[in-house]
């Protein structure tokens, strides 16, 4: 069909076999189809629509990506400059005061004793922690890495009678840690008191008032 007109079909027939096995034929009436133009009543005056532009294959957001990245970069620079200005304006950053080693050691020993690990059957765990606290305090007091040394290596570095008291505690802890020796509860209490007494005797005298203030603050 190449023109606007009414197109009629002939009768359509459909063959089939019915339930009795006989051939049957269904026939329809002729069908009329009318072709209508979409050019309106005056097709001769119709004009073609403008050609559509090329559809881009890249996502539309990629077009604005450089602008977004630039804006984020500017915001980052402004934030850094604002932080730097605020820091300079406030002066030097506040420094958190370090807790003196003797105060920290006494606090840790008391907290360890309060956990009652020894009384709960964890003597080895208790003395491992007990020895570590004493070694760290001794190292900060005498200026050598006691935590990284064996007890005998520590013994060769100390020469004061005070430090030899702590050496006896370290050897006692080694027996519990490595020889599975469990001391009596009274001996454990004596070790704790000896350690606290040693720390008290070796703590700086001029920080006695400061020690009270810090200890009270840490207990709050």
Descriptive report:
The chain is elongated. Strand 2 and strand 3 form a beta hairpin. The relative contact order is 0.08. Helix 2 (101-114) runs antiparallel to helix 3. The longest helix has 29 residues, at 61-89. Among the domains are: 6-38, no CATH class; 101-202, no CATH class. Helices cover 53% and strands 7% of the residues. The termini are far apart. It has helices at residues 61-89, 101-114, 123-142, 151-155, 161-179, 185-202, 208-219, and strands spanning 6-8, 13-17, 23-27, 32-34. Mean pLDDT is 82; it is low at 206-220. The strands form two sheets. It has a two-stranded antiparallel sheet. A two-stranded antiparallel ribbon has the order 2-3. It is built from seven helices and four strands; from the N terminus they run ββββααααααα. The chain has 220 residues and is mainly alpha-helical.
Mass-distribution shape? elongated
Radius of gyration: 47 Å
- Name the quaternary structure: single chain
Q: In percent, how helical is the residue content? A: 40-55%
Summarize this structure briefly.
With 220 residues, the chain is mostly helical.
Considering the chains and any ligands shown, give keywords for the structure.
about 220 residues, mainly alpha, two-stranded antiparallel ribbon, 7 helices, 4 strands, elongated, disordered C terminus
């Amino acid at each position: 069909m190449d023109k606007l007109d009414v197109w009629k079909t002939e009768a359509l027939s459909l063959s089939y076999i019915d339930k009795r096995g006989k051939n049957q034929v269904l026939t329809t009436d002729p069908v009329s189809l009318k072709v209508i133009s979409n050019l309106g009543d005056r097709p001769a005056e119709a004009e073609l629509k403008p050609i559509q532009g090329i559809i881009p294959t890249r996502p539309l957001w990629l077009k604005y990506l450089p602008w977004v990245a630039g804006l984020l970069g500017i915001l980052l620079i402004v934030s850094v400059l604002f932080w730097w200005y605020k820091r300079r304006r406030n002066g030097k950053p506040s420094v958190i005061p370090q807790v003196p080693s003797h105060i920290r050691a006494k606090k840790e020993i008391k907290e360890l004793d309060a956990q009652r690990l020894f009384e709960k059957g964890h003597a080895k765990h208790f003395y491992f922690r007990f020895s570590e606290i004493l070694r760290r305090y001794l190292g900060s007091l005498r200026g050598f890495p006691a935590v990284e040394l064996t007890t005998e290596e520590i013994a060769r570095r100390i020469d004061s009678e005070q430090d030899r008291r702590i050496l006896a505690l370290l050897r006692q802890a080694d027996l519990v840690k490595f020889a599975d020796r469990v001391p009596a509860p009274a001996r454990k209490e004596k070790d704790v008191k000896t350690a606290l007494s040693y720390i008290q005797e070796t703590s700086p005298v001029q920080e006695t008032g400061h020690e009270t203030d810090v200890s009270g603050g840490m207990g709050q």
